[in-house]
Structures are given as structure tokens and as C-alpha cells.
Batch of 2 targets.
Target 1
Amino acid sequence: MTALKNDRFLRALLKQPVDVTPVWMMRQAGRYLPEYRASRAKAGDFMSLMQSPEFACEVTLQPLDRYPLDAAILFSDILTIPDAMGQGLYFETGEGPRFRKVIETAADVAALPVTDPDADLGYVMDAVRTIRSALNGRVPLIGFAGSPWTLATYMVEGGTSKDFRKIKAMMYDQPEVMHALLDKLAQSVTAYLNGQIRNGAQAVQIFDTWGGNLSSVAYLEFSLAYMKRIVDGLIREHDGRPVPVILFTKNGGLWLESMAGTGADALGLDWTCDIGDARRRVGDRVALQGNMDPSALYARPEMIRREVARILESYGHGEGHVFNLGHGITPQVDPANAGAFIEAVHELSAQYHTTA
Ligand code: CP3
């Protein structure tokens, strides 16, 4: 394998010293970029875009060609797993993801297969290899999956939900059915992430978009416990290098200490917590990734710079910080403002890494 030319992202995740704070953006390949919209139009739609290894590679590299980002993220979606389980994923314009078949009963859960990445998700494995080879060591490649709880939410609700009525009814009324579903998902996600690692992903992130909607006790039982099982089952070293794991629970600020106890290397933070405070809470146990409000990118470049400076100052000196947004970049952001954000992180962070 080609040697990595820029490994500051992997170093920061492992709390090793870096020259400047590494930065990437969740959803960095997406609709705010005109070149992404052009590729999607060429592919026909989002599903065709992500299911073609060549197109997936093309759009993964687009933000890297524009900005000096410190990591690439596989272009795919968390809902590839429910799709491979037979639910029939499709996207309704303006309405987000939908499934042809929705999980409603204990029998539906019992009939669900555990997915095998090579047999059922070969297009993702191919995309990882294609992207890794095209990157040629420029920056590390991040693989990802959804958390079991977040995947279950889409599978039971049938799409994006406002009130989570069906999934919460299942959780409270039939906890054993809920656990059976989460167990199959945890097995599928573990095998999927290990497949991505074997094919070239150099770090992995688990996206728990909806764990933050649970009660404090339910989060530990229905979301965190399954993410811990995944972390326990992951390949942690490949090609002679550690493969860091990042856990991101949106609205997960309440549970940082418990998340830090899972064995993950880093925690992703949304913008609602103060990153300095989070650092004091987790101590030396994990690195932190985040956490600028994506809406700050609607402001003028000098105001974006001020927000970046504030977050860097809050984190303070030393290792263990990967800069990111607190959630995905939105389609309405001016690409020039994303550039100003990335530049500000690199320029303003050098002072926090000088070794005495
Ligand atoms: O970060 C990246 O650049 C990698 C690609 C990526 C996508 N989805 C591409 C995508 C990643 C990491 C995801 C994860 C994902 N997908 C999550 C977890 C992260 C989060 O945002 O909380 C979730 C919940 C999904 C499910 C999903 N996929 C939704 C709700 C939507 C529709 C929302 C929207 O923005 O329209 C998608 C579609 C999707 N996935 C798009 C992209 C770029 C937009 C599709 C398009 O081009 O129209």
C-alpha cells in the first residue's frame, strides 16, 4: 500500500502530536457543490450515484480537489444495510429516504437476514477499493455505518420521522422484539465495517443520528450497548496501522463519559456542547471531533473565522482534536464559505500545537 502523505487526521484520533488541527466535514461530498449536482444528474439519481463505484469515487474526491481537507469519507449512505436486508430503499425527491417494506411485527424481525458485506454489499466494498486506490495516499479514507438504533429507526418508521412513534412503541411495548432487531443490525454493521476496513478504510465512524432522542436509561440499553458490541468486534489494526473508531451520537452530550468507556478512540460532538467542557469530562480517554454549528457557514468568512477561533480556544492546547461541523453541511452553504472554514482551522490552530 502507498504511504500516507498526510496522516494528521489519524494521528489526532490517536492523540498523537500534529502540526495543525486536522479538519473534514460531515457530508463534505454533497449538494452544496455544483460538481456534485452535475455528477448526480449524470448518474440519474442518488441511488445510482452511490451504487456505482466509479461515480462514488468521483464525488468522494470532489471536495478534496477544492479544499485542503485532511480526510476523505466514502460516498455512500447508512441505509445500504436495510436495503441489503431486503427493505427496498428509495428516495422521494424532497422527502428523504423511504422503504418499500417496513418492519412492523416480531415475524418481520425474525425473517430479516444478517447481511454479508461481500455477498450483499459488494458495490460498497468495490467503492472503498476504488477510492483508496485513487487517493493514492493523499489523505486517509474514512468508512462508516449507521448505529443499530438509528438504522432501526428508519426501518420501523419507514423513513424520516418527526415523533418516532412506531419505533418507541416497539421499544416500550415489545422490548424483546426491539432487541432482536438491534442484535441483527449490530452483527450486520460489525461485518460491514470490517469489510470496509479489509478493503481499505483507514478509520471508521458510527453515525448515531437518533440516539439523542432516547431517555437517558434507554440510550444506554438500546443505542450505546449495541455500539459497544460493534466496537468490540471491529478489526483495530490493518496493514500495520491502528484503525481508529469514532462514535457520533447527535444530541449525545449527556452521555460522553459512558461513550468514552466503550473502547472507541474518539467521540464526535454536535454543536450543543462546549468542546472544552467535553474535554474535561472525558479526560485522556478519547479524542474529540467537532463541533461547529453547520449554520455558522451561512455567515460571512470573517465571522466563520471568529467561530473557529472560539472552538479552538475552548479545546485549548495539545493533541486529540479533529475539527469538524457538529452535523452535516447543508445544501444551501456557499462553497466559498466552506473553504474559509477549512483555511481558518489550519491557520488558527498552529499556535495550539507548538511543542515547548
Ligand atoms: O459525509 C459524506 O460526505 C459521506 C456521505 C454520506 C451520505 N449520507 C450521503 C448522502 C454519509 C456519511 C451519510 C450518512 C447518513 N445518511 C446519515 C447519518 C448522518 C446524518 O446526517 O445524521 C443519515 C441519517 C442518512 C440517511 C439519509 N440519506 C437521509 C436522511 C438523506 C436525505 C437527507 C437529505 O440531505 O436530503 C439521505 C440522502 C443522502 N445521503 C444525500 C447524500 C449526499 C443527499 C442525496 C441527494 O443527493 O439528493
Target 2
Amino acid sequence: MKMVTIVGARPQFIKAAAVSRAIVAHNRSHSGRAIREVIVHSGQHHDVNMSEIFFREMEIPAPDHALSIHGLGHGAMTGRMLERIESVLLEERPDLVLVYGDTNTTLAGALAAVKLHLPVAHVEAGLRSFNRMMPEEINRILTDHVATWLLCPTPTAVRHLHDEGLHLRAGMVIRHCGDVMFDTIRHFAPHARDRAAHLRQGVGDGYRLCTLHRAELTDNDERLRQVFDVLLDLASSRPMLMPLHPRTRNALQRIGLNWEGSGLRVIEPVGYLEMIDLLDHAGVVITDSGGLQKEAFFMGKGCVTVRAETEWTELVEIGCNQVTGFDAHTICQAVVAMQDLPVDPSSCDIYGHGDASERILKTLLGE
Ligand code: UDP
């Protein structure tokens, strides 16, 4: 079976790493049909520490097609990707096309494939924030509605797809496979020890680890200033480490925010192994990332989600994630409440057992 995998953004490399590894293991086992994977990298994330480092550290096969499309608005980026991915698919003629998550790359890949009558498999199907102002929400809804295989990380995601009536469509396969990010962290955590020791130097354990990058924050100057005022305040009582996404760095430059001399240690985006080590030594995670909310849980840390809502509601229900919105007082209270919270990752198995990638392959092979 020939499969084209389409990736382009950091979280997609991390998810695809698990499935690519499972494909290699499947082919080595000589059981069932062999899978030939062709990787397309759209270029949406292109800096060395937003892209190349993940391919290198996580042993993802080098892209067969690198499209280098980045730095454009949503329409131009998605449009150019659609055109280029269509050419690749016409050349490769795969049996199916695999897309991940909810970026412009996901949507362009799915659209290009279905228009050529190639079936699409969507990893991380069924996630919903119910906030249509988020570009990611539009991307994931449209992708789910054109895909054939909807590979869900949680039972909640399956329910969302049923609520939208997708189970009634002939030929549709909706399956709870578990979360490939859990597969990834289980595989890499033992190799991550002390990988970020140089970044942690001088801050001690129990620091606050913060990543923020969503457009709903970075595109709103007043909100951005308000949130960073709270972060600077929090960083005055306990050190805070912040691997800064390029989009957020640009936005902070735009509003002229200065963190020099504060307890906020801003660093460049880190590789996956460094991130796992940073999580391991943190006292609490403050984020608007989807992936990091779960990784905080997998690494036994409490999480504060600086957004109006989350797709990963289960973690809120079991009390290890608080969603604060953007109000300064609420963020402050949540960080204090979640600091050093004992979190037992084995208390909840909704993300599966680290075998989501194998389950995905079995589903695609019809086994
Ligand atoms: N991540 C990383 N280095 C960083 C920041 C994040 O390796 O400096 C990883 C993080 O551990 C998670 C993924 O990137 O696995 C999340 O990506 P991101 O927050 O960009 O996207 P989202 O999960 O919100 O889609």
C-alpha cells in the first residue's frame, strides 16, 4: 500500500514521528501488506528549530517532497499548498493520503486528495473547541467532513463526529485509536533526561514553563499586553521559562514588550527532547498549546490553559488542567492552584496505551 503523509507544522512532525516509526516496525515484521510511506513537507514551519530538529531527533524519514510554502496569509498559503500538493499526488498516485491535526497544511492536503478521488485518513479527528473564530477549528471540521478514515484520540472526539452525523455516511470509518502524542512521549521520554540541563541552569526545579502562540492572543495587542503583564508578575515570585514561538516574538516586538531584568527567561523554541526534560523539572505548565496540555499530564504536571476553551476537556474534568481565559486575576489564581499539583498520569487512560499508531495502521489496512 502506498501512502502519502502530509505534514508542515511542528505538532505534525511530533505526531507523524509515531506513525512513521510504526510503519517501519510493521514492514520489518513482514506481517500483512507492506506500506510505502511518501512524506510531503509543506514548509509551513521552516526554521531549523521549528522543523529540521524534529526530523533529526525523532528519526522521521526525510521528506520526499519539500514544498517550502510559508510566510503568507491563510488564503494564499492554503491555496498554494493545494496547488502544489495536487501535483505531488498526481505524480505519486497513492492509495491513501494521511493528514494530521488542524493546520492549513491539513486542510490543503485533505482537499487536494479528495478532489483527485484519493481517500483521506485524518489523525486527531473529532476535536472541537466549538469556537469558529479559531482557524484551526475551521481546518479540522472541513477535514473531518471530507475524510474517509476518522482516527480519533479520545472517546469525546468520536462523540463529536457522531453528533455531526458523520457515522451515517456510507463507507466512513470512525475509530477511537488513542493519541499518537502519547505513543511519542512514551518512546522518547527515556531518552530526554538532562537534554535541557543547559537551559534549566540557574533556575532550579519547580519553575513555571510557559508557551503561548495562538492567534487569538498574538493578534490582539491589548490581550497580549494584559497576559504578559501577569506573566511578568508571576515570574517575580518564581522563575518562568518560556520557549518563544516566532509568531509570539514578532507580536511582542510589535507591542514593544520588554522582559529584560524580570524573572521571565525567554529562550528560542526547543527540540522535542529538550521540551520533555523541561516538562520533567517544571512545577506547572502555562500554555495555549493543544499538545502541551496533554504532555503536562503525561509528565505528571498541572496545567493552566490561557484560552477561552479547550479541546482536551477530559483533563479539566479530572482537575489537572484549568482553563482561565485572559483575565489577569483568574490566570494568577490558577497558576498558584496548579503549582506542584500531584498529577498521576496512570489515573486516566483515555489517550490509549501507547499503541495508537499501530491501531491506526491496522485500521487503514482493514485488519
Ligand atoms: N514543542 C517543542 N518545542 C517548543 C514548544 C513546543 O518541541 O519550543 C512541542 C510540544 O512539546 C508539543 C508540540 O510542540 O509536542 C506542540 O506544538 P504547538 O504548541 O506548536 O502546537 P499545538 O499543539 O497547539 O497544535
